[in-house]
C-alpha cells in the first residue's frame, strides 16, 4: 500500500510553510497528502478560548481551509484532512509511522493547541520510524531552484548512513537535483591507533584517502540504483555538524541520519542532527537508521 506524505499543521507560519513544502513534494513523488492537525482542549480563564466544541470547530475549519488552499494550488493532488485530539508527540509519531514522511514546521505554536511545535517536533524526530522533515517559516519554492543541491551527511561504514543516502538519492531523482555527499573526518586521538587500524590506513595511503575510499564505497550502491543523479563527493576535515553547515547555503534540502539515544529524561537525536536543525536555513530531513534505533 502506498503511504501518503503527512503534514502537521497548527495555523502558524512555520506549519503553513511545512504544508506548502509537503504539497510540492507530494506532487513530485505522485503521492497523496494528509493534512493533520493535532490538538488538545485548553481552557484559559483570561482569554475567550471557547468550550471544547468551539475549539474543535475552530481546528476543523482551519484544517479544512488549509487543505482547500493547497488543493487549489495543486489541482491534481489528493488531499485529505485528519483532525485528532490527543498528545501531540504520540499522535504525530503514530502519523509518521503510517506515512512516507512527516513534515512539520521547525518552530511554531497555535493559540488553540497550546504547545510549541518545535519542541514537539524534536521529540517526534527522536521517536519516529519514518523520515521527518522540518521546514522554517519563509521557505519558498525558489529555494528548490536548479543548481541547489540535496546535501546529505555520510559517516561510518556502508550501512551506517544507508537510510539517509537512500532518502537523499530518491529525493534528488524526483527533483532532478545533484546529491552532495559530505563525509567529515578528524584526526583520531593517540589512543585510537592500533596495529590493525594503522594497517588499514597504510593500505589506503593515509587518513584522507581512507575517508575518500569509505565515502565512495558507501555511495556505490546508490549510484548504481540512481544512475541519473549527479553526485559530488565532499571530504573535509572538521566536525560533521560544522562541515554540513558550511555547505548549507547551496542546499535545497539537508539530509542527516538519526540514531536516537535514550536517556533518563527522554530521547536525544544526536549532536549533528540537533545542530543542523537549529542552524540550517533550508529544510532538514532527519532519517532514522534502517533498524529504527
Overview of this structure, please?
α5 (about 160-175) packs across α7 and α8 packs parallel to α9. Residues about 110-115 have low confidence and may be disordered. The protein folds into 2 domains: about 5-140, Rossmann fold, CATH 3.40.50.620; about 145-290, 3-Layer(aba) Sandwich (Rossmann fold). The protein is elongated. β2 (about 35-40), α2 (about 50-75) and β3 form a beta-alpha-beta unit. Strands 3-2-1-4-5-12-9-6-7-8 form a 10-stranded mixed β-sheet, with helices on both faces. It is α/β, with parallel strands linked by helices. It has 9 helices and 12 strands. Belongs to the universal stress protein A family. It comes from Streptomyces hokutonensis. It holds the Pfam family Usp. This is Universal stress protein. InterPro entries: Rossmann-like_a/b/a_fold (IPR014729), Universal_stress_UspA (IPR006015), UspA (IPR006016).
Portion of residues in beta strands equals 15-25%
Strand order of the largest sheet: 3-2-1-4-5-12-9-6-7-8
CATH architecture of the largest domain: 3-Layer(aba) Sandwich
Q: What is the string of helix and strand elements? A: EHEHEHEHEEHEHHEHEEEHE
Alpha carbon gap, first and last residue: 24 Å
Structural class: alpha/beta
- CATH class type of the largest domain: Alpha Beta
Which regions are unreliable across 5 or more consecutive residues at pLDDT < 50?
108-117
How many helices does DSSP assign?
9
Radius of gyration: 21 Å
Number of strands: 12
**Helix percent band:** 40-55%
CATH T-level topology of the largest domain: Rossmann fold
Major β-sheet profile: 10 strands, mixed
